[in-house]
Write a structure and sequence with these properties.
The chain is α/β, with parallel strands linked by helices and 245 residues long. It has a domain of 167 residues: Alpha-Beta Complex (Spore Coat Polysaccharide Biosynthesis Protein SpsA, Chain A). The strands form three sheets. It has a nine-stranded mixed beta sheet with strand order 3-4-2-1-5-11-6-12-13, sandwiched between helices. Strands 7-10 form a two-stranded antiparallel ribbon. Helix 1 links the parallel strand 1 and strand 2. The model has no long low-confidence stretch (mean pLDDT 95).
């Protein structure tokens, strides 16, 4: 069993303990693990390799999703792997993660054996009827920490911005609110999440650039799970230990 970890970082001063936490938790599994650290703050950084750690330049165009995609492309070309673990530097912002599960090693093997996308399933407590281009986005894997078999990511991209024209829809707040491709329930969920419930909540009217980037990230997070299921893969909720088709 070989694990490839793709870790996207931006502000190392804000989250200094994230990488040591990830390495420490994975060391407990005693699995063969190699790390790709994607530096989204330095998009022109030269590649550096220190043992099992590969540090590469990031791509912050679509925040962690474009960074993960660059890491995924690198892993496919440079690192043998059975399972890929995706994490970002803010993964501890909401408490415990997939890595705290005492069955973590078993979940890696489960993912490989059954080609499962594994993570904590989230659902909206703010709104209902979350649709985007008639796609049901009512449940999704929390993307701060998730894993899947190598076979899944031969077909599945992490950044689906271009595939679903997410850039255009989130171009500005006015366009987002008037969009016919996003259901009123999804609009309400995104707006209230960013303005009230997110750990870095802000007024969307006062910072449209931040709104655009964060709204895009939320939709990308939801589309990742939807797209995996569309491609025929199953999703395993690490919290309830249930498989979702």
């Amino acid at each position: 069993m070989k694990i490839a970890v793709i870790y996207v970082q931006y502000d190392t001063k804000k989250y200094p303990d994230s990488l040591p936490y990830i390495v420490g938790q994975l060391n407990k599994t005693n699995l063969d693990t190699e790390y790709v650290i994607v530096d989204n703050l330095r998009e022109k950084k030269e590649r550096e390799i220190f043992g099992v750690f590969h540090i590469i330049a990031g791509n912050n165009k679509n925040w962690e999703f474009s960074g993960w995609q660059k890491g995924l492309d690198y892993v496919k070309k440079n690192i043998s792997h059975d399972v890929i673990l995706f994490v970002n530097d803010s993964l501890k912002s909401y408490g415990k993660t997939l890595l705290d599960d005492n069955k973590l090693k078993d979940m890696f093997y489960l993912s490989k054996k059954h080609n499962l996308l594994i993570g904590k399933i989230d659902r909206s407590l703010i709104s209902s009827e979350l649709f985007f281009n008639e796609r049901d986005l009512s449940s999704w894997i929390c993307s701060n920490c998730f894993t899947g078999s190598s076979e899944i990511f031969q077909l599945l991209n992490v950044d689906n911005t271009d595939l679903f024209n997410v850039n255009e829809i989130t171009q500005d707040l006015k366009l987002f609110i008037s969009s016919k491709e996003i259901s009123s329930g999804l609009k309400r969920h995104i707006y209230l999440w960013l303005s009230k419930y997110w750990h870095s909540a802000f007024n969307p009217e006062s910072d449209e650039i931040l709104f655009k980037n964060k709204a895009k990230a939320i939709i990308n997070e939801m589309l990742l799970t939807n797209r995996a299921i569309e491609l025929g893969f199953r999703v395993f909720d690490s919290k309830s230990k249930c498989i979702h088709d």
